[in-house]
């Protein structure tokens, strides 16, 4: 707020995420009219997950700004929110991701397929399900390993869970690691059973390092990143093979740290088995349209809406 007080009321303010957007409602009443609201998550899924009191606050917020410009980082999140909250002025502008043509890519030297998760260790990522599925596939004779990169409030639970399932030899917690090249050169493919995404940056990272992706068709981001010509609102009931990996059916319900797979989860084992075979046999072209995430495109989109807002004021 101290920073905003230094601004002139004709200045353009970009308010990112819920707390600043809430503040923006009051700023409008004191004369700040040039406001761009930015939402980095799936607003509708967030709304459905919170308490009744928070639902009332979110409804109030987006009713008050329903005619103002709201920018989403996911087209799926935009489409859902526009319908749910009757928003009149929305737009999707992706985050910038600079694909690097000069990275050092490792070459596979052994028969073991190493899968990796790269995320915060949080309940919405369902890494415990990844562990259960990997264990079952390993029990069926698959020569497979899992490296878990990241940190978070589930770290201790996950450590004990791996020990309890007796799979420490082929499932390892790697901790937090900032060196992307080190991470992606240590794995053959990325795997995620996430329930929700804001954008899915690890998908683009994995594509950049030419590592195939096994990802739930969750909201919002994975489908429009991995299968950009499809409808992001239509979810797969089994799996879909793309140039860069598999989109697999979304999580039916969260079953935290269970010791056995249920029938719905057992289907993931068969799908993952197909995926591992495709990774072994280099069945993914990894061809990808990188331009839509370039600085040139994204900055152009931002300059365009800022110019339009400035001209209207």
Account of the 3D structure:
The protein has helices at 2-5, 18-29, 43-49, 52-64, 75-85, 127-139, 155-164, 180-185, 201-208, 222-226, 263-280, 295-312, and strands spanning 13-16, 35-39, 70-72, 90-92, 113-118, 144-149, 171-175, 189-192, 213-216, 239-242, 245-248. The protein is of the alpha/beta class. It has a 7-stranded mixed sheet, with helices on both faces. A 4-stranded parallel sheet has the order 1-2-3-4.
What about the largest sheet?
7 strands, mixed
| Helix amount | 25-40%
Structural class: alpha/beta
Q: Please give the radius of gyration in angstroms.
A: 21 Å
Widest beta sheet: strand line-up = 7-6-5-8-9-11-10
Helix run count: 12
Give the percentage of residues in beta strands: 15-25%
Shape: globular
Order of helices and strands: HEHEHHEHEEHEHEHEHEHEEHH
What low-confidence regions span 5 or more consecutive residues with pLDDT below 50?
none
Number of DSSP-assigned strands: 11
Distance between the termini: 22 Å
Mean pLDDT metric: 93
Keywords for this entry:
single chain; four-stranded parallel β-sheet; 11 strands; 313 residues; alpha/beta
Describe the structure concisely.
The chain is of the alpha/beta class and 313 residues long. Helices cover 40% and strands 15% of the residues.
């Amino acid at each position: 707020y101290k920073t905003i007080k230094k601004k002139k009321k004709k200045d353009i303010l970009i308010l990112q995420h819920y707390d600043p957007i809430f503040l923006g409602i009051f700023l409008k009443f004191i004369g700040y009219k040039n406001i761009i609201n930015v939402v980095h998550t799936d607003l509708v899924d967030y709304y459905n997950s919170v308490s009744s009191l928070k639902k009332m606050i979110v409804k109030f917020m987006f009713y008050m700004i329903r005619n103002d410009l709201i920018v989403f980082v996911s087209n799926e999140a935009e489409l859902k929110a526009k319908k749910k909250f009757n928003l009149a002025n929305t737009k999707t502008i992706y985050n910038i991701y600079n694909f690097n043509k000069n990275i050092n890519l490792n070459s596979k030297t052994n028969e073991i397929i190493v899968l990796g998760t790269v995320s915060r260790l949080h309940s919405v990522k369902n890494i415990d399900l990844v562990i259960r599925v990997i264990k079952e596939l390993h029990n069926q004779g698959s020569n497979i390993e899992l490296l878990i990169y990241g940190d978070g409030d589930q770290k201790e639970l996950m450590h004990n869970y791996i020990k309890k399932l007796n799979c420490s030899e082929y499932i390892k917690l790697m901790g937090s690691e900032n060196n992307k090249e080190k991470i992606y050169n240590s794995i053959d493919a990325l795997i995620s059973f996430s329930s929700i995404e804001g954008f899915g940056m690890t998908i683009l990272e994995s594509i950049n390092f030419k590592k195939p992706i096994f990802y739930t068709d969750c909201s919002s981001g994975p489908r429009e990143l991995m299968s950009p010509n499809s409808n992001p609102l239509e979810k797969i009931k089994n799996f879909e093979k793309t140039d860069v990996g598999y989109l697999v059916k979304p999580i039916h319900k969260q079953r935290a740290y269970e010791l056995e797979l249920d029938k719905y989860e057992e289907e993931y084992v068969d799908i993952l088995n197909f995926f591992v075979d495709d990774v072994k046999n280099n069945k993914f072209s990894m061809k990808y349209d990188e331009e839509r995430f370039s600085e040139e495109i994204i900055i152009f989109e931002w300059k365009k809406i800022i110019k339009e807002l400035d001209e209207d004021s």
